[in-house]
Amino acid sequence: MAEALQNMYTYLSSQIKSIGVTDVVDILIVAVVMYYIFRFVQDRRASKLAVGLVLLFILYLISDLLSLNTIKFIMDNIFQVGLIAVIIVFQPEMRSMLESFGGQTKRLKSFSAKESKSNVKMVEEICRAADDLSADCTGALIVMQRSTPLGDYINSGTIVNADISSILLRNIFFNKSPLHDGAVIIRDGRIHAAGCFLPLTMKTEIMKELGTRHRAAIGASENSDALVIVVSEETGTISVASDGKLRRGFTRHSLEKYLTNVFVEPSVKKTKSKKKNEQQPKSKDETESDQDTQKETKGDVK
User: Fold this and answer.
1) Three-class secondary structure assignment of the chain
2) What is the mean pLDDT of the chain?
3) Residue 300 clears pLDDT 60, i.e. is over it
4) pTM for this one?
């Protein structure tokens, strides 16, 4: 027993000593990737599919250990085409995950990178329109594009390309308007398109009282990082869909606060940081350099 423990200790020591910097980096990268994959899958339909694949793998190991030839033969054939099957089964989730990862590098080019004043006006107009539509129980669907392009959805509607105005939004969603059934897409701080069709979510646990608008809002937020505002035609309730989740019961003030945190605060912080860097006291060397430059300038003027 002691000899076995000694051999195990020697083996583990040799393995630990052989670990280099590249091995540590490799392990950390794999750990980070697995963590984000787990976070992405846990709240989605893919989590149930992943559990099913794990159970199949466990069944394969059991059949191999117990020599269950028939089950092992079936499992072998299943896993031979396993990669293709995984791609087919997880296609919506994989597309959403890749779009989410790709959008991280463009995050600074979204609304949050624009001037805070224009963002404040945009938020005010949208909140005013949502409040008026809610009071009249007029259904509405407003998509605010961020880093993920929504060209596929825009092509399904009509290009408007107009400044954001609460009056214009109310007119678009007026029940006699030809564009009121679709979604309005806001891009680059402007009403870019109206009457657009959005993909419906495939989630089955959504409340029965939620209609097509809410399902379309969740579906659009699942396939992109867009933020979608919904006004219920039946109750006038204002909801917001983001990252595949629907938050309900917003008022004008709570919606304005939520949108400000998303689209205004980052740009304000960025502007303050820039001003702070510009106002930092100069070093002694920089001050002396500025004085020398002023002296040279005065000499040139004389």
Assistant:
1) CHHHHHHHHHHHHHHHHCCCHHHHHHHHHHHHHHHHHHHHHHCCCHHHHHHHHHHHHHHHHHHHHCCCHHHHHHHHHHHHCHHHHHHHHCHHHHHHHHHHHHHHCCHHHCHHHCCHHHHHHHHHHHHHHHHHHHHCCCCEEEEECCCCCCHHHHCCCEEEEEECCHHHHHHHCCCCCCCCCCEEEEECCEEEEEEECCCCCCCCCCCCCCCHHHHHHHHHHHHCCCEEEEECCCCCCEEEEECCEEEEEECHHHHHHHHHHHHHHHHHHHHHHHHHHHCCCCCHHHHHHHHHHHHHHHHHHC
2) 77
3) no
4) 0.60
